[in-house]
Design a protein that fits this description.
Layout (H helix, E strand, L loop, with lengths): L2 H5 L11 E13 L22 E3 L5 E5 L6 H19 L3 E3 L23 H14 L1 H4 L4 E7 L1 H9 L7 H19 L1 H7 L42 H14 L12 E4 L7 H4 L3 E7 L11 H16 L6 H16 L10 H17 L8 H10 L5 H9 L4 H18 L12 H13 L2 E6 L4 E6 L2 E6 L9 H8 L1 H10 L7 E4 L2 H6 L1 H4 L4 E5 L9 E3 L5 H14 L3 E5 L4 E8 L3 E8 L2 E3 L6 H8 L5 E2 L6 E2 L5 H9 L13 E3 L11 E4 L6 H13 L4 E8 L12 E7 L5 H4 L9 H9 L5
Parallel strand pairs: 18-19
Antiparallel strand pairs: 1-3, 1-4, 1-5, 2-3, 5-7, 6-7, 8-9, 9-10, 11-14, 12-13, 12-14, 15-16, 15-22, 16-21, 17-20, 22-23
């Protein structure tokens, strides 16, 4: 087969950069001083051995983070970043992840390294065997496993261009065998660029047996490798299967998974299945943790690995396949044990490879990052730019351990800087980010079906649920959602069930609404769009309004909807009840957007100051929203006798909105424990009356001391089909109520 020509075929080229990816990243848990953690695996993470995202590797302190399989690198790193956030916040503020492949200082007594406390005893027995065979110290080395699969479209297109191999599965296997043999031959290049384990910490070696520093202890014979009597051939799939089976039979390997090659062929539960089913993907296992990226691997590295694998498919290999692989072992050992600041002895070969790769990119019209080849060439010119070189240079004035601790602390700070956000998904609505966080932590598989529409698929074993916007689920019918969306219908249904609601009228055109001014001008009233959410377009007049102000309010409301409601204003305090499955899970008191005067600054300046709070942002990506300075705010100020450039006296509270929505700059205060049960029952029964299971229902209550049964004790002004959750989870004041987790328990009762 002439793979070089086939890769340039117009049927093949569109699929060259299409692939499937997955990452498994190991790392040691340490305390804030950089010492190996003495705690057990976090209890906040499901303690199931088979958690889909966060598991234990060899030891109780060795955390393994696992991404799902993704179709793009962007999606891969979104998951990896999010899983890191969950891991950090599950460990708590007193622990962090060690950023190096080589472990921190280990106990003097090897037996004090605690094997993972797994429920599956066979997994514990396997780890006990590893500790006897290789020693516990060596098992504490961590790294990246990079899983890569060419797209089916690419493999199929290549298959269609040849006639030598008749079976598709066999053809695919030959493709992966070729890149594997070439990868094993040229993997020294990965060790040069991305090796990052130049030194070991105290108690790793029982006796000094290595002249440190080097490029990569982990990728040398002193790192994570099988015993020297292990021999496995990659010349054919039959040889590969036969050799591994023989090694297990002879007792050189206790199980197939003990084979620690830099590349594993993947495709079935057992190695023996590869011949019939074919190799589906390869697992690259020789990648050191990148200490300069919080994820342990950078996007540029992943992009390079994809391009490198295409190059290895294009590149001819040696005639003697076994010798070709063995030569790669020798080269890699040389490079791994070179000083991190010296040029590799294979510098000329490396430059030729990069030149060929650059030519291949142009020849095949591949799109790569602008800096990729620039950075690779810089690392070849100057070894101090490689990962090992950078780490060594930083360690010269202190120690590698101190540098690693400093990096870990910085990563820890970033993870806790905005704990309400989920890195990788900050473009999504905040309640959805929080729900994804909780799902990952609980071990529920999350698939983002439509990122823009906040549409998720959640899966726990065979149980699948779909969820939109954080809490729109199959538990609520389509009609109940439409009822809550339509304020007129909501009011009528609640009124028919005996609940007090504000009286008023609906208008479908602006002239009709303006003619009705006299009906409302002598009493407090509210103008609001019929179906709006987040408090948009709402104006409240507690005292007599001028026609001019009424006209402006009507205009603003019609900008949000084609129908507008004008209804009586109910006196009292507004409370948001979060009702889930006939239970009130949280109650929030929301105060309208406001500033407090200091006698020095204008209202506009005070707003700017308050908006500097890191909890405030835009578009529901933070727990509090920015206070706006628009037409509606100016209208509200005018009603109080102020302008934007007015300087209010000290301690004077100035309200810029009269509606108290957090989404329009209001403050949230949790009052769940202060609300009497009879009002909670009103909220539950009202939500039930409109046929909903999940709702945010707004009650106006004048005096909590007055029983709910008392005439006019309360009024229901709104029911929300997609209530914000973040304001309950991160209130401005008061106790956090993790309503997102209650949603997941409701959808997946088997978790409880």
């Amino acid at each position: 087969m002439n793979i070089k020509n086939m890769l340039g075929d117009h049927h093949v080229k569109p699929y060259l950069l299409k692939a499937r990816y997955g990452i498994e990243k190991e790392g040691q848990r340490v305390d804030l001083l950089g010492n190996l953690a003495k705690t057990d695996h976090p209890k906040t993470i499901s303690i199931n051995d088979e958690h889909p995202y966060i598991q234990r590797d060899f030891s109780e302190t060795q955390m393994e983070l696992i991404t799902p399989v993704t179709e793009t690198l962007e999606e891969l790193f979104s998951y990896l970043s999010a899983i890191h956030d969950v891991a950090y916040q599950s460990m708590g503020v007193d622990e962090m992840l060690w950023p190096l492949s080589m472990p921190p200082q280990l106990p003097e007594n090897e037996d004090d390294i605690i094997i993972a406390k797994l429920k599956n005893f066979s997994n514990v027995l396997y780890r006990r065997y590893l500790s006897r065979s290789y020693g516990r110290r060596k098992q504490m080395i961590s790294g990246i496993h990079y899983n890569f699969e060419f797209s089916e479209e690419l493999i199929q297109a290549l298959f269609n261009l040849q006639s030598e191999i008749k079976e598709y599965a066999q053809f695919k296997t030959e493709i992966y065998l070729k890149i594997t043999r070439n990868y094993l031959h040229y993997r020294w290049l990965i060790t040069y660029f991305y090796g990052a384990s130049p030194s070991s910490e105290k108690n790793f070696f029982e006796k000094t047996s290595l002249n440190e520093p080097v490029r990569s202890i982990r990728n040398s014979k002193h790192g994570y490798s099988n015993h020297e009597d292990l021999q496995v051939s990659f010349s054919s799939i039959q040889s590969y299967i036969a050799d591994i089976s023989l090694m297990v039979k002879k007792g050189v390997l206790i199980e197939e998974k003990e084979f620690y090659s830099a590349v594993r062929l993947r495709g079935g539960q057992q190695v023996s299945a590869l011949e019939e089913q074919g190799v589906r993907y390869v697992e690259l296992r020789n990648i050191d943790l990148n200490p300069f990226d919080k994820n342990g691997i950078s996007y540029e590295q992943a992009e390079f690995l994809h391009l490198f694998l295409i190059y290895l498919l294009w590149k001819d290999e040696g005639e003697n396949r076994d010798e070709w692989v063995k030569t790669g072992d020798v080269y890699n050992e040389i490079v791994a044990l070179e000083h991190p600041l010296t040029h590799t002895q294979f510098k000329g070969d490396a430059e030729d490879i990069i030149a060929e790769m650059e030519h291949l990119v142009k020849e095949l019209d591949l799109s790569v990052s602008d800096r990729l080849f620039v950075n690779l060439k810089e690392m070849l010119r100057d070894p101090s730019k490689t990962l090992a070189g950078r780490l060594y240079k930083m360690s010269e004035h202190s120690s590698q351990g101190e540098v690693a601790t400093s990096i870990a602390i910085e990563n820890h700070k970033k993870s806790w800087e905005k704990p309400y956000q989920l890195t990788g998904y900050t473009d999504m609505e905040l309640s959805t980010q929080i729900l994804i966080f909780d799902a990952i932590q609980l071990g529920i598989q999350v698939e983002i079906l439509d990122r823009r529409e906040q549409f998720l698929k959640l899966k726990l074993k065979d149980h699948v649920e779909y969820i939109k916007n954080g809490n729109m689920t199959s538990k609520d019918s389509y009609i109940s959602t439409l009822i809550m969306e339509n304020k007129t219908v909501t009011k009528k249904i609640l009124h028919q069930h005996g609940f007090r609601v504000p009286l008023g009228d609906e208008f479908n055109d602006i002239e009709q609404a303006l003619h009705a001014f006299a009906m409302f001008s002598s009493r407090p009233f509210v103008v609001k769009p019929k179906t709006t959410n987040y408090g948009l377009g709402i104006s409240i007049f507690k005292e007599n309004a001028s026609y001019e102000d009424y006209q402006k309010a009507i205009t603003l409301a019609f900008e949000e909807d084609s129908s507008v409601l004008v209804e009586e204003f109910l006196n009292g305090t507004e409370y948001r009840f979060f009702v889930l499955n006939d239970k009130v899970e949280a109650v929030i008191l929301r105060t309208p957007a406001n500033v407090i005067g200091d006698g020095k600054h204008t209202i506009e300046e005070l707003v700017i100051q308050k908006n500097r709070d890191p909890l405030r942002g835009r578009d529901h990506r933070t727990p509090l929203e920015m206070i706006q300075l628009g037409e509606l705010e100016n209208l509200m100020l005018k009603g109080q006798g102020y302008k934007m450039d007015s300087i209010p006296e000290s301690d004077k509270i100035i309200y810029l909105r009269k509606n108290s929505n957090v989404s329009t700059g209001g403050d949230s205060i949790d009052v769940t424990d202060q609300i009497p049960d009879d009002y909670k029952k009103i909220a539950v029964h009202a939500v039930s009356a409109i046929g909903a299971k999940i709702s945010g229902i707004d009650l106006i209550i004048e005096d909590l001391e007055v029983p709910a049964a008392h005439k006019n004790a309360y009024g229901i002004i709104e029911a929300n089909f997609n209530p914000s959750m973040y304001m309950h989870i991160y209130p401005y004041k008061g106790k956090s109520r993790r309503v997102s987790r209650h949603i997941l328990y409701y959808l997946f009762p088997e978790l409880v």
